[in-house]
Amino acid sequence: MQITILPASSKTAQATIRSLLSTPTNTNLHIRGLYRDPTRAPPEFTSHPAFHATHGDIRDANTLDLAGTDALFVMTPPRHDVDDIFQWAREASENTRAAIERSSVRRVVLLSSMGAEFESGTGEIRTNHIAEEILQDAAPEVVIVRAAYFMENWAGGVSSVKDQENPYFESVITPLEYEVPMVAIKDIGSACAAHLLTPTLPESPYIFELHGPKPYSVLDVQRAFKDATGKDVAVRPVEKQDLPAFFGQFLPPALVGPFVEMTVGFLPGGVMAQGNPDAEKRVQRGRTGLGDVIGGFFEGSA
Ligand SMILES: NC(=O)c1ccc[n+]([C@@H]2O[C@H](COP(=O)([O-])OP(=O)(O)OC[C@H]3O[C@@H](n4cnc5c(N)ncnc54)[C@H](OP(=O)(O)O)[C@@H]3O)[C@@H](O)[C@H]2O)c1
């Protein structure tokens, strides 16, 4: 069986490859990772006889060779260098679809996001809505994994938690006791690997949300930082009206609006906070807890 990973360099793709390579039953498994620059494939993968890195740039459909692929992992790479991220999502998905149509891919596993079912009001998450629309019938079997907020997003707080005399982290999730689903990237990799390999699916497209073992609030994040460092860690909430200035500190101007709308969209009163009425029937849960992910940020540090 041949599984192709596009693009193979993303964090979720790496977790998927790691999970596939550790699957004991698949002696006939071949994994092709498509990279803009294959020399960036890590030795952890290239040293494995079942893994091969090859060139593939989602900007150019002609470089996406899916010949021999049985199952394809695909996600929409975020780009901060374009003025219109939605046009990029359309282009990336159409290039991917064109490559699928030239080949005999039987199954596509698309990494998407919670909230991708909504057409508007979701900001950056609309890139996933666009990808779902274009790819949902691109192969006989399509799996759409709508992942929750990545627990690893909290890595952005590590430097201020570590380096300051008064350790703190900033949170765009308010109020602080508001609970949201969060999932570890490792569990996204396991879920995607499992759905690339499973012999049968209930339907196509097969859509589910992927959450962690339980929802978490920012107070849980604060507790996890405290447990990991042994220090009292403060939270600096970023209120809704301050979101444009907050995102403007580190995002290009064209992305500030989509990130503000995405954030407001999942806070109380937002379009995504209403939840998907079907979601409860379709939630799968990872096993990794928030404390394990945040603790991992500090492994090996003094
Ligand atoms: N963060 C969240 O809470 C969250 C939640 C749900 C869903 N999501 C979705 O998850 C996705 C992000 O996943 P991630 O964090 O795993 O991504 P990521 O680590 O940011 O990886 C993106 C990768 O895409 C590669 N890339 C960029 N342009 C490319 C091109 N033209 N051709 C081939 N490769 C290209 C880059 O690799 P090189 O530079 O090495 O080429 C980069 O490593 C997004 O679609 C996002 O909407 C995120």
From TrEMBL:
Residues 8-166 form the NAD(P)-binding domain. InterPro entries: Ergot_Alk_Oxidoreductase, NAD(P)-bd_dom, NAD(P)-bd_dom_sf. Pfam families: NAD_binding_10. Coiled coil: none annotated. PANTHER family: PRESTALK A DIFFERENTIATION PROTEIN A, PTHR43162. This is NAD(P)-binding protein. It comes from Aspergillus campestris (strain IBT 28561).
